[in-house]
Amino acid sequence: MSLQAAKDLVRAMNAELDRAAPADIESVLQRFTSDDWLWRGVHPFYEQTGAAAVSDSFWRPLRAAFSPLQRRPDVFLAGESIADESRFALPGSTWVCEMGNLLGLFDSPWLDIPPTRRMCLLRYAEFNRVGPDGLIHESAMFMDIPSVMAQSGHNPFPPQTGADHIHLGPRTHDGLLHAAQDPSEGSRTQALVDAMVNVLSVANRVANDTGVNNIDYEVMAHTWAEDMIWSGPAGIGATYTIDRYQQQHSYPFRFNLSDKFFNGHVARIAEGNYACFFGWANLTVRATGGFLGMPASNAADMRVVDVYRREGDKLAENWVFIDLLHWLSEQGLDVLARMRQQLGLERLGNQQSGDKL
What order do you get walking across the sheet with 274-278 strand by strand? Predict the structure, then answer.
């Protein structure tokens, strides 16, 4: 399966999926996926197998809540996944990544999040592994569910370190790599991302051994552009320039989380000036207190997506998704359950007030 054929397959599936009536979603997915299709979703969806399970648990409820649902991708690329130490990775397998926003009118509850009856944006990053048989065998769908909660007036996190806003697509507006790309450019992008990851890996080992968490500005500047933009998930936010990235994300992340252990990636690809990866889970970390307003806790897994844009010999933009709801659930906090409890108490209070009147 060539990269172009894999991209065409995913684009065809998404086009049919977006047009399909709710009753036809399962049949659309069946035509493009294998019988043992493994779909990974953020909390509370987790792993699902087969078109029926994915349709029933995810796509039909989402489409019922956000109607009409419009797909607005900002980045689209494909590549052969490189080998790393992950027990999940399939070196040489073909993956397609799409990142952007799903837009709809939030008219009905979703995961019990109260609807706003207004336009709502759901950030997503989706990965699909296409096999030699021309079918999708694995997928991962990362979504920023807390951002939907915040748009509904139920922000689950304390004030975040970065800026809270609609995340921007690539500054160069060239992220949709529908056409074939120069392989040498993808190799340059992958090499730069690898160099940056190696710096972080060394820093993590030093921090685990010595407790020293600093990464000097000059070290960052070897691989990052001065005017870099880092777009993180709700609860963390977005930052601009190396200096503010360090202040508003890197240092809070490094100083409030310890014992960082890298588990590897499921997929790690690059094409043209773009690269991306995801893990299940990438990192295992221990909260020492303060991060997301949480107290110190046990070690927990972070499932993370990174999407990068290279400009020249530096990384210029980075979009990040973290399954924070899963990470918090491993520490005993079910954010969605807490929201449901709060909503129930509010309804009870309103009912009692009405009875008194």
Answer: 238-240, 224-231, 314-322, 304-311, 274-278, 267-271
pTM for the complete prediction?
Answer: 0.93
The token pair that represents 159 in the structure block: 């004030």
In angstroms, rounded to a whole number, what is the distance separating the alpha carbons of residues 32 and 133? 10
Select from 318, 321, 323 the least CA-distant residue to 168: 318
**How far, CA to CA in Å, does 202 sit from each of 210, 230, 259?**
12, 21, 13
User: What are the residues facing 320 on neighbouring strands?
Assistant: 306
Instruction: Give 86-105 pLDDT, tens digit per residue.
Output: 556 677 799 999 999 999 99
Phi and psi (nearest 5°) for 304? -130, 145
Rounded CA separation 71/124 (Å): 10
DSSP letters for 200-238: HHHHHHHHHHH------HHHHTTTEEEEEEEE--TTT-E
Instruction: Give the list of residues 6+ apart from residue 70 with CB closer than 8 angstroms, or none.
Output: 18, 102, 103, 104
Give the tens place of pLDDT for each residue, 38-78. Answer: 999 999 999 999 999 999 999 999 999 998 999 999 999 99
CA nearest neighbour of 259 among 199, 301, 299, 214 = 299
How far apart, in whole angstroms, are the C-alpha atoms of residue 53 and residue 152? 27
Q: Compute, in degrees rounded to 10, the torsion defined by CA atoms 213, 217, 222, 227.
A: 120
SS3 32: helix
Residue 104 and residue 71 in contact, taking contact as beta carbons nearer than 8 Å: no
Cα–Cα distance measured from residue 218 to residue 101, given in angstroms and rounded to the nearest whole number: 34
Percentage with pLDDT > 70 across the chain? 94
Task: List the one residue out of 290, 160, 308 whose CA is nearest residue 229.
Answer: 308
Q: Residue 77, exposed/middle/buried by CB under 10 A (0-12, 13-18, 19+)?
A: buried
Interatomic CA distance for residues 6 and 130, integer angstroms: 6
